[in-house]
Amino acid sequence: MEIDLSGVPVFDGHAHNLLLPTWLKEYPFEGIFTESDNHEYIKFLSHETLSFKRSMLDISKILECPSEVEEIKKRRNSMSQSDLTSLYFKEANISSIVLDDGLCSSRTRSVEWHGKFVDVHRALRIENLAESIIAESTSFDSFLSDFRDALLSTSENVVAYKSIIAYRSGLSIRRVDKETAREGYMIEREKTSARIVDKRLLDFLFHLALEISSARMIPFQIHTGWGDRDLSLIDSNPLLLKSVLEDEKVSRAKVVLLHCYPYPREGAYLAAIYPNVFVDFGLSVPLLSIKGMEFTISSMLEIAPVTRVCYSSDARFLPEGFYLAALWARRILGRVLWNSVEQGEISLEESYRVAERVLEGNSRSLYLGY
What 3 state SS string does 40-55 have? Predict the structure, then answer.
């Protein structure tokens, strides 16, 4: 059994922009159901996960068509992107979205375009910001000044900073002095690639951005746990952030550990001992099996305060992900909370209050302040 949470809106605390029409033809529908970017995997194996098979049944009900993949594609192709987006966002009952527009930004719709369908805000990806500045910089000092100024002068629509340092050098982040960071800058400045990978510079910029986040009371999102093949899963364990969280200079920073899986307990443990840490189960819901989604959410609620567990979709490129994440977050959270009611941990009335906090209230308070 499960508690019916179908009427509870969701605040999507972390997602990505939808593709521009010119790129929709290039991107495979199956791509949103896997973290793999391998064309062979997407074509032949993405269909074979429990999550994909379940999702086709869910999508067919919304589109009112057979659940075979080709039938779904045919139905999708008969609708405009705006109509599909409006349909899925409405069915998902999303109150607000925080978009990280740093993923394939040249191929995706603007943050403002999404605002036609839902209240939308922005998370500023700090590595992308640094990369946009470093190529035109004339010195390390001017680069740092421009980077700091950009973080301090963000528009009101920026409600979070975000780091993907896990993808670059891992979460074992250390304090680096300015001269050591300068050495990293000089190496990066000579490269032809715009992608910053020098750990000395990345660690320095991470701490600088986190300090500004703390001073401005803007939440700081950190990618942890799983992702695509560009990431070392061992080096993305949220427990590696313990030394960062112990740093008194950033003890007031509101740190959001995104995704966490397969480390939901580790992330929840940090949220259980540091009052400024939040955990988020985006991506796991809906990309895991039902059992996997139950494991992720229940693991977080085993120990973390219910006021520190947040919903997000981590949806990207196509609107189906936003709907599927909201659908299954409600269902799985309803099951997990029903178990707590049955076992006498909480009352039925309290379970609804917890659900509202996890699905919407925690993120609304965190990002919008009310």
Answer: HHHHHCHHHCHHHHHH
d(CA 326, CA 141): 45
Task: Give the 3-state secondary structure percentages of the chain, helix then strand then coil, rounded to 5.
Answer: 55, 15, 30
**Rounded Cα gap, residues 94 and 88, in angstroms:** 10
Distance CA 213, CA 211 (A): 5
| pTM higher than 0.85 | yes
| Chain centroid offset of residue 319 CA | 15
Walk across the sheet containing 277-280 and list its strands.
Answer: 10-15, 94-100, 119-125, 158-163, 220-224, 255-259, 277-280, 309-310
DSSP-derived secondary structure letter, 174:
-
Give every CB contact of residue 150 below 8 A, 6+ residues apart in sequence.
129, 133
Strands 282-283 and 94-100 come out as unpaired
Q: Is the pLDDT of residue 192 over 80?
A: no
List the chain domain ranges.
10-36+81-368
Q: What tokens does 170 get?
A: 């891992």
Amino acid identity at 69: V
Tell me: the pLDDT tens digits for 54-112? 999 999 999 999 999 999 999 999 999 999 999 999 999 999 999 999 999 999 999 99
DSSP state letters, 64-132: TS-SSHHHHHHHHHTS-HHHHHHHHHHHHTEEEEEEETTSSGGGB--HHHHTTTSEEEEEEEHHHHHHH
Q: Which CATH architecture describes the domain 10-36+81-368?
A: Alpha-Beta Barrel (3.20)
pLDDT digits (tens, 9 = 90+) for 137-154: 999 999 999 999 999 999
At residue 345, does pLDDT exceed 80? yes
